[in-house]
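User: Hi! I'm working on a homework problem where we have to compare a predicted structure to a textbook description. Could you give me the structure for the chain below?
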Amino acid sequence: MLIVIAPDSFKECLTSTEVAESIAQGVLRVAPDAEIYKIPMADGGEGTVEALVAATDGQIHEVQTLDPLMRPITAKYGVLGNGEVAVIEMAAASGLALVEPDNRNPLKTSTYGTGLMIKHVLEQGFKRIILGIGGSATNDGGAGMAQALGFRLFDGKEIEICQGGENLASLAGIDSSHVNPRLFELLISVACDVTNPLCGPNGASAVYGPQKGANNQMVAQLDSGLLHFAEIIKKDLDRDVADIPGAGAAGGLGAGLLAFTNATLTPGFQIISALTNLEKIISNSDLVFTAEGKIDHQTQFGKTPAGIARLAQKYNKPVIALAGIVGAGTDDLHELGITAIFSIANGPISLEESMANAASLLVRKAEQVMRLYIMRRGS
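Assistant: Happy to help. Predicted C-alpha cells:
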C-alpha cells in the first residue's frame, strides 16, 4: 500500500514537515507495512525553505541580515539537493513574526533584509533562486530590497530616500548604474499565491496593510505611495508593474521583484509539486493525505489541499484532508477531489488547546481514518 502525505503547515503551530510526520505516525499504527511518501508542501510563506530542502535532500545555511526594522538578525536559507538552486523566504528577514505586535507599522518596515539575502546568494554564485514571499511585515513595494541590491532611490534633492513605505511619496528617481550586472542574469522564481494588483481596493495596502498594523489613514498613505512608486518605475525603468496579478503580494514586493529583477511570479504549489515529482507519485498511490491549519471555502483558491485534490482527481485517488479548524463552505472541495475532511479536534476544545496538542491530535485522527480505510478496503 502506497500512501502519500502532502500537507501544508499549521501556522504558528507545526511546520509542514512536522504535520507530515505526525500523520505518518498515525498511519503506521494501523498499517505498519505501508510505503509512505512524505512531501511537505508550502505556499511561499514560512516553511517553504524547509519543505523544499526536505524534499530534495538539500541543506540549510545561515546569513547575517536585517529584520523589517533594520535590526541585525541571523536568517536561514536553503540550497536544493542539486546544489544549484538557493531557496529564500522573505519572511526570514522581512516577516511579520519578526516584529513585536506593538512595533508593527508598515510605514516604517522595510524589505532591505530580503535584498541582503538575495545579494548574498548572488555573491555565492547561484544562478537561480526560488523566493517565497508570504508572511511579510512590509508595504514598501520592494524599495528596501532594491536599495540593498545597489539601486539608488533618491528624492528631489538627489538624497537617498529612507526605509519604509511612508517615504515612497518623496521618490523622484531611480539609478541602476551601480547594480551588479549579474543580478539581471539571475533567474528568480517567486512563489506567489495571491493575484492582488499593487494598488487600489484590492491592492497590497488595502487588503493586507491592516494585518501589518495599518489604520485607514495609513492604508491611504501607503496606497498613494505605491502608486507613485509604480509611476517612477515606469518612467525610469520602463516597466509597468502596477496592474500585474500578484504585484501586490508581500506589500508590493511582487511588483518590486518584477521591476528590479528578472523575476517571474509562479504559484508556490506549482513550484514545489514540480520539484518533488508530486503528480507521478500521487498517480501511483492508493491513498493521499493532505492537511492545513484551517480548511474552508477559501481553500479552493490556490491553497495546498485544493492543489493536491486536483492532482489526485486526475487519477481517481481518494484524498483525506485534516485540519485544525473546518470552516464553512467546504462542500465545493468535494467536487475538486477531496473525498473527506476531518477536524483533528476530539471534542469541544479551545484554539489554544488545539494548537498545543496539534501533533498528537493529528496522529490520533490519522490513525482513526486509516482504521476506517482499511476496513472498507477489506470489505
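For your comparison, note the following. DSSP finds 14 helices and 13 strands in the chain. The mean pLDDT is 93. Good luck with the assignment!
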